Amino acid sequence: MKILRPQAFGRIRSAKVAFNQEIVLTRRVAPRLLQNMNLGLFAGIIGAFLTWVVIDSAGQRIRLMSVAGLVMYLILSILVSANPARIKWRPVIGGILLQFCVGLLVLRWPQGNQAFRWLSNQVVTFLDYTAKGTFFTYGFIANPPSEICGFGSVFVYTSLQIIIYFGAIVSVLYYLGVIEAVLSRIAWVMQYTVGTTAAESLNAAACIFLGQTEAAILIEPSLGTMTDSEIHAVMTAGFACIAGSLFSAYISFGACPQYLLSATVMSAAVSLAVSKIIYPEIQESKQKDMKSFKFNSRGHNNVLECISDGAVHSAQFVAAITANLIVYLALLALLNSVLGFFGTLVDYPELTFNKILGYVFFPLAYMMGASDAVDPAVQIDETMKVAELMGMKTALNEFIAYQQLSQWKSDGTLKGTRAQTIATYALCGFSNISMIGSQIGILSTMCPKRKSVFARVAVRALIAGTFSCFMTACVAGILIDEPLSCNSAASNGCVRLERMNFNNTAEFDYEL
């Protein structure tokens, strides 16, 4: 039997220490190498895509301007970031790539475009069943005779009533488990491609169809343990998307259904990317895996209770939207009148609040490639109109901006189809100043102890949501080579009444 000498023990210990150091070094270096490989792969994909864009837009250089606009918004996001040094580029690049993939699928791939148009038409048909209930309830007001010019349907009794119908259907689908099944799978795709946590991905997926309030209800059990960055991502997605119940309302203003549906999907994806630039993650998340996520129970006993609760709950939103529209439109008219008065004092009677917003947002709209007009004067005019709409949407709300877009399309003020398309995408979102209070109020009610966090990240979330909508417009400007023009439901071939009296006589002209 051999007896090891002391020197042998020393060599063994030295070898063991060296082996452990190699293991530690491998554990530190391997993730970095893997991350560098992923970043290199993403960089290669982006380079190949930019090459394709340059070749594909050979005859339409204005589409390259949209690429510059996209880069500009990324730079602006970095400049307003809470912690630029801690930005993790994996979710940023993943979110932008997912946005482009969705855009290519629905805007450039013929089969995908056809399928998305079919889906958009089915959504419109599904929402239009609301007319059966509104006509029975409101009668003439909900369905006025189209033969008389100017007798359009009353907005609050038609388009807004869809919110009640949609809310009841969502409540039933939630009770049956359909919402959980569908959103869980979409969230898994987002989590896998973008690299965000379960709660962030689920909220972004829910915002595509449900809007910020219903989406927040889904993740309510996790609000107490979410990191500040996750809360910021939740609020950003709420600002960047619209609710499915409002599709028909925007369509009634002349927005193309397929553009609206693709815009909210693309904005949901890029909202995660922009959120991680403006408010990077510096904490450890407790909601990393969808398998560990628990959905909140609403406590309904049967389908009939779901329908009733969903309808009554949604009716409150109809009242809130109606009140806000009345107040904002009245204040806008007052402000324009006051500014017009002061404008006459300096020989500029055309001065309005819309004009001021247009000048502020003009550089942003110009960099997005808002107009493809050949005449420089027409290009500047169309870009200014798009900038005004962007400003109205941000300072007031998207309803007023879409209504103004519809009016400009009808009277020929904004004729360019590219300008109309860019505006449709840029306006598609809840990113306006008035929604800050709404978001803070909703989330604070669900989780009062995190109210200070909601208030602290709200402004940056609004900026991130705004940038997300505008970046979606840039991507649409890059990919769409033949923009569509959709019109509002105006009556043609109608009788225009000129004067009526109490003797039941009228003078009228037939208008084609």
TrEMBL record:
Residues 68-139 form the Concentrative nucleoside transporter N-terminal domain. It is a multi-pass membrane protein. The chain crosses the membrane at residues 37-55, 61-80, 92-110, 162-183, 231-253, 259-279, 325-346, 422-445, 457-480. One of its GO terms (cellular component) is plasma membrane. It comes from the Eukaryota. GO terms for molecular function: nucleoside:sodium symporter activity. Residues 159-254 form the Nucleoside transporter/FeoB GTPase Gate domain. Keywords: Cell membrane, Membrane, Transmembrane, Transmembrane helix, Transport. Residues 259-477 form the Concentrative nucleoside transporter C-terminal domain. It comes from Steinernema carpocapsae (Entomopathogenic nematode). InterPro entries: C_nuclsd_transpt, C_nuclsd_transpt_met_bac, CNT_C_dom, CNT_N_dom, Gate_dom. It is found in: Cell membrane. It holds the Pfam family Gate. Its main location: membrane. Belongs to the concentrative nucleoside transporter (CNT) (TC 2.A.41) family. PANTHER family: SODIUM/NUCLEOSIDE COTRANSPORTER, SOLUTE CARRIER FAMILY 28 MEMBER 3. The keyword Metal-binding does not apply. This is Sodium/nucleoside cotransporter. The lineage of its organism: Eukaryota, Metazoa, Ecdysozoa, Nematoda, Chromadorea.
